[in-house]
């Protein structure tokens, strides 16, 4: 069965449209690249923003370890770095179970971990999780790992936020 010239043009147009839609989907769902930066550059990003975020990543942790992650997030949120900024605070206990709230609101929103990361990618934020790697700072986010003893990492970063 031979295709007419019109059928070929329609098929080509559909393929082009499908390709463009797939490219747009990939570009919109990929997280924005965030380059490593100094602690001062990250603090500057927070200070120049009206909204900031804290992501407390307790996925797969025991209740005791999750409590430590949440306590660190609470301590950092109360630091002066965030001042009067609107904070989006998100706690995740699994990939499918995250709870988000804003500091100026009594309402909460349920979301997935993927949705949580997407919600924070346009504002400066701190991600806190269990571990013992040194804190890492990027242009738009910081990654803090804390250990079972609450670790010096959270204290170090609480001190940073109180500057």
Give a quick rundown of the structure:
The chain is of the alpha/beta class and 163 residues long.
Give the oligomer, counting copies of the same chain as homo and different chains as hetero: single chain
Radius of gyration: 21 Å
Number of strands: 7
Cα-to-Cα separation, first versus last residue: 75 Å
- What spatial form do the alpha-carbon principal axes imply? elongated
How many discrete domains? Answer: 2
Q: What series of H and E elements makes up the topology?
A: HHEHEEEHEEEH
Structural class by helix and strand composition: alpha/beta
Number of helices: 5
Could you explain the architecture of this structure?
With 163 residues, the protein is α/β, with parallel strands linked by helices. It contains five helices and seven strands, in the order ααβαβββαβββα. It has helices at 5-29, 39-47, 63-77, 113-120, 151-161, and strands at residues 51-57, 86-94, 97-102, 108-111, 125-130, 136-137, 141-146. α3 (63-77) runs parallel beside α5 (151-161). The longest helix has 25 residues, at 5-29. It starts with a helix and ends with a helix.
């Amino acid at each position: 069965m031979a295709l007419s010239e019109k059928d070929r043009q329609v098929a080509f147009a559909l393929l082009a449209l499908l390709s463009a839609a797939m490219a747009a989907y990939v570009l919109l769902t990929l997280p924005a690249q965030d380059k490593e930066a100094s602690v001062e550059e990250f603090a500057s990003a927070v200070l120049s923003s009206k909204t900031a975020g804290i992501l407390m990543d307790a996925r797969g942790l025991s209740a005791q370890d999750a409590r430590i992650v949440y306590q660190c997030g609470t301590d950092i949120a109360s630091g002066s770095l965030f001042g009067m900024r609107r904070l989006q605070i998100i706690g995740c206990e699994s990939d499918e179970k995250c709870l988000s709230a804003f500091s100026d609101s009594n309402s909460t929103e349920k979301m997935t971990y993927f949705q949580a990361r997407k919600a924070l990618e346009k504002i400066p934020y701190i991600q806190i999780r269990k571990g013992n790697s040194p804190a890492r700072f990027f242009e738009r986010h910081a990654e803090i790992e804390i250990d079972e003893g609450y670790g010096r990492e959270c204290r170090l970063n609480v001190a940073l936020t109180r500057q």
